[in-house]
Amino acid sequence: MRIGIAGAGSIACGTAALLYRNKHLPTLWSPSGRSTTAFETKPLQAHGVFEEEFMPAIAQSAQELAEANDALIIALPATGHKQIMDALAPHIREGQHVIISSHASFGAVYLTQALAARGVSAPVTAWGTTIVSGRREQGPRVRVNTIRNRVDLCTVPEAETDHGLALCKSLFGDRFMPRDGLLAILLSNLNPQNHLGIALCNITRMERGEDWSQGLNVTPKVGRLLEKLDLERLAIAKALDLKVKTIFEHFHQSFHVPVGSISEMNQQMHTHGYGGLGPATADSRYVTEDVPYGLQVTVVLGRLVDRPATLHEAGIRLFSAMYDREFALENEFLHALELESFSLCDLQHASRTGVLHRPSTPQT
Ligand SMILES: NC(=O)C1=CN([C@@H]2O[C@H](COP(=O)(O)OP(=O)(O)OC[C@H]3O[C@@H](n4cnc5c(N)ncnc54)[C@H](OP(=O)(O)O)[C@@H]3O)[C@@H](O)[C@H]2O)C=CC1
Ligand SMILES: CC(C)(CO)C(=O)C(=O)O
């Protein structure tokens, strides 16, 4: 299949290499054009858990990306999702599948509604994480640290679930776990809680621009914080009667290490050489993306089901103080969709249909 990828960073390039390896035809689109200049003269070189070298097709615009491809994958930080959805939405065709990797906040609802405003219906598949992990390196290189065994997904509207699963399997193999709607997917993205603990406890390393091993620095106390944050997320999922994986399953399925404490699992990743490097800047998506688009949404859901996520909330406040910003207000989807004015029941409905009805509008 011809797959258009919005983004040309770590995940976009790693995913493109995996698609190419699986005999599909990926096209990359860098919104500013900067991230694809390296491929004008040199092939994309993927290394790490697999090696692949090929010339990726490059799209010059959102329009070209949508028109020239069978399906689309959005693979860039959530801070850019609204802008990229606004750019793609006018060009997405009826029935053209869009995958969001990884989904955050209520992005799939925003996109579905933008398409509905044009009278277009297209399935949107939301992934709880990415199919690969890795880092874009200098020039045309990308390091792929892992291919995950299991990625949680759902498709809106719900009637397209089988279609979404079949598409993902045909592109990447049998690596997907269907979940019950967008609220489950939103609660299946563990990056925000994990990055809260990792960034908070290593903020001086980040701010000083050090090179530091992320896995090694999930020390026992940091690991315990991640485990306690996980309990808050799991309590919210339970109150919503949603099945989501635990942090232990996440590290086991993503990084293929035996189950132990979260610190032990991270130490193993470090020992095997894929513990990864932590951010070498305070201006990192671990904070700028994950606080507004992850932690804030968990806190809102926690309030709605009377399971306050107090550690998550403390994280938002601490980062907001350190960065002198109001991260809670930086989630563009919460504003654009006016999410605060909807009830839990409205959100649960949107979680399956992709459509948020005004509270006064009768639901179908
Ligand atoms: N890397 C990893 O291992 C993992 C990543 N993720 C998630 O995957 C997603 C992608 O991450 P990753 O690839 O690492 O990120 P990168 O920072 O490598 O992504 C860079 C790409 O995103 C584009 N981009 C960044 N910000 C914006 C913006 N505001 N508007 C438009 N485009 C933007 C850049 O555009 P341009 O080309 O114009 O510069 C570039 O193409 C994120 O949500 C991340 O949290 C999840 C798990 C693991
Ligand atoms: C490094 C890793 C895989 C774990 O924190 C990650 O999720 C990320 O880069 O966003």
TrEMBL record:
InterPro entries listed in its UniProt record: 6-PGluconate_DH-like_C_sf (IPR008927), 6PGD_dom2 (IPR013328), KPR_N (IPR013332), NAD(P)-bd_dom_sf (IPR036291), Opine/Lysopine_DH (IPR051729), Opine_DH (IPR003421)
Domain of life: Bacteria
Pathway: Cofactor biosynthesis; (R)-pantothenate biosynthesis; (R)-pantoate from 3-methyl-2-oxobutanoate: step 2/2
Catalytic activity: (R)-pantoate + NADP(+) = 2-dehydropantoate + NADPH + H(+)
Gene3D superfamilies reported in the protein's UniProt record: N-(1-d-carboxylethyl)-l-norvaline Dehydrogenase, domain 2 (1.10.1040.10), NAD(P)-binding Rossmann-like Domain (3.40.50.720)
Pfam families associated with the record: ApbA, Octopine_DH
Keywords: Pantothenate biosynthesis
Organism the protein comes from: Roseibium porphyridii
Domain Opine dehydrogenase: 179-322
Domain Ketopantoate reductase N-terminal per the UniProt entry, residue ranges: 3-100
TM spans (from-to): none
Record's protein name: 2-dehydropantoate 2-reductase
Coiled-coil regions, chain positions: none
